[in-house]
Amino acid sequence: MLLIQLNKEYKIYKQDITKWDNLILEMIRSFQILSSEFILFHRTVYSEGKDQSIEPFCDKVKRDPLETECTDDRSSVALCNLVEYTKKLPPHYQNFDRIPHVSEGREGFYGGVVSLADYCPYIQEFTWRSQNIAIRGSHCQYPENNPHTDKNFALEQYGPNSRCIDHTDRLWEERTCKQVRQWLHGGSGCYPYVCENGFLHIIVHNYTFTCLYPKQVIKIQLLANKWLHKGALVCPPCEEMCNSYARRVKKKLEKD
Length: 256
What we know:
This protein has about 260 residues and is of the alpha+beta class. It contains three helices and 17 strands. The strands form five sheets. Strands 9, 10, 11, 13, 14, 15, 16 and 17 form an eight-stranded antiparallel sheet that branches. The two termini are about 35 Å apart. Its cofactor is Zn(2+). GO terms for molecular function: metal ion binding; metalloendopeptidase activity. InterPro entries: Peptidase_M8 (IPR001577).
């Protein structure tokens, strides 16, 4: 997306190279500010022991089991683009004092995949792949991203009215009398929702679960496709979901 935007800007400014140079300098300054803010905020969170999110930044290294998150607007299941490099990053790109599940002293080898962002890791949408072949995307509002029935352990449902909801740390599982299967990734999933009577209602496999307060854990045990699906959802703040829901309903009514 960044390259596409730069290409558009270049077509506009190519007759005035000074304006083009100024645009590039402005972007560089923006990324430098972003990097500084990330370092300061990350260190503050850890030094003061604050229990708060560092989104849209992140500090989760891709590992097994794969742990997904939600984008800031909850439009997509997402991954942290923090990776390990073979060589230690230059000191001014070393953004961490500590990283979960990374040995002390190895932090300098880790950074985001985007060098233009000063290696600051952030949460981003991704594509599920099998043997390097794209299977589906992670944007919640596209029905074509629905997982195959046999692989839908967390009973997700992608569609126009769906948003990303966090799971608990415990992986979802499927059970029968003779077998237990546990999914190889967890962390978040896409589910439809409605906002009624001042509450957020999340819909899982046609069952409605009501969120009464933020971070409420809703345990799920539902029979689907001859398997008992067990897992849990973490309720987001009602206003985080329902403000956008109200705008969407209003827009639909205006069209009708």
